[in-house]
Amino acid sequence: MTVHSFQEKFDEKIDREDTIEPRDWMPDDYRKTLIRQISQHAHSEIVGMLPEGNWITRAPSLRRKAVLLAKVQDEGGHGLYLYSAAETLGITRDEMLEQLHSGKAKYSSIFNYPTTTWADMGAIGWLVDGAAIMNQVPLCRTSYGPYARAMVRVCKEESFHQRQGFEIMLTLSNGTEEQKKMAQDALNRWWWPSIMMFGPPDAESPNSESSMRWRIKRFSNDELRQKFVDVTVEQTRILGLEIPDKDLKWNEERGHYDYGQIDWDEFWNVVKGNGPCNKERLETRKKAWEEGAWVREAALAHAGKRAERKAKSEAA
Ligand code: FAQ
To answer: Residue 177 and residue 44: Cα distance in Å, rounded?
Structure first.
């Protein structure tokens, strides 16, 4: 078979909505794009454990602590499914982590903002997990099989996370005046960074065209952002809070909410490493990697011993 016919077969599969599997032929750029997106997604889950991890010891009740602990563990699990999915494309986990630690790989801009009050746990669950679900539900139908299957499980857990975040916000909004203020303050700080999570506007998104053609992405950055704004406005009403955007209003003609200008300079500044917590996040990850070396070594030694024992018992 020529490269041309491999390409034709690949294109036909994409058009038929078949999944592409690890042993199938795929164009180099498709493989590269997937490695980039899946590894960045994995890094986001792992770095995303840090802002919430910051509040585990300070959760206001045992119930809240148990729920937050479980949520942060879930995010770690999501990172692991995603690293495994990326490994099927021919990159090792060590290589991906090296790219994260050296600052070469990106992770979601949102995790470079500080979590200063308990209400931030509500805002992250409600808005950040809410935005993540909006982006990830279509990824359950993404063209690369291992990524799509990982996303099915991730989305189930993310919907629980979103609801627990909303419930924290609802409790605070119905609480004392001070608690309601805390909820509003969290919404004020997390709103704009949350809608930036969907990535640059379509006209400035270099990867979108090919990713849409390959059915890696099913909706554009702006389409998903709009869907998120539309559903979140309604949820904010239930909370009795106000979205910090004076230009937000229903547009009858479009059948969507119009929203104000996003500060893209702030977004790119954070993506380039200059956000409020970029340095701290990366240093914490690197320290965890270095200090966890003995765990990895012990696990490898244990696996080696087990394999040795198994080989001996099979030979006997
Ligand atoms: N932050 O051409 P596009 C979560 C970069 S998971 C940083 O539009 P693309 C769960 C982009 O990489 C959150 N960088 O790129 C959780 C590209 O740079 P590159 C993560 C960003 O890939 C909740 C450049 O800008 N979710 O939250 C961002 O077609 C709570 C140009 O952009 C995923 O990763 C950004 N926000 O579209 C965990 C979902 N946006 O790589 C803990 C999967 C863009 O060329 C607690 N990823 N960039 O150097 C995707 O769907 C896509 O990759 C997009 C970006 C939509 C994020």
So the answer is: 34
What is residue 1's predicted lDDT score, i.e. its pLDDT?
64
Percentage with pLDDT > 70 across the chain: 99
Tell me the CA–centroid distance for residue 53 and ligand 1, in Å. Answer: 21
**Can you give the pLDDT at residue 119?**
98
- Maximum CA pair distance of the chain? 78
Residue ranges of the chain with per-residue pLDDT less than 70: 1, 3
Residue 221 C-alpha to ligand 1 middle, in angstroms?
A: 10
Q: Is 124 in the pocket of ligand 1 (CB under 6 A)?
A: yes
Q: Round to whole Å and give the CA distance between 41 and 315.
A: 44
> Which atom of ligand 1 sits closest to the CA of residue 197?
36
Give DSSP secondary structure letters for the chain. --HHHHHHHHHHHHHHTPPB-TTS---HHHHHHHHHHHHHHHHHHHHTHHHHHTTGGG-SSHHHHHHHHHHHHHHHHHHHHHHHHHHTTT--HHHHHHHHHTT-S---GGGGS---STHHHHHIIIIIHHHHHHHHTGGGG-SBHHHHHHHHHHHHHHHHHHHHHHHHHHHHHTS-HHHHHHHHHHHHHHHHHHHHTT-S-GGG-TTHHHHHHTTS-SS-HHHHHHHHHHHHHHHHHHHT---S-TT-EEETTTTEEE-----HHHHHHIIIIISTTHHHHHHHHHHHHHHTHHHHHHHHHHHHHHHHHHHHHHH-
Across the chain, mean pLDDT equals 96
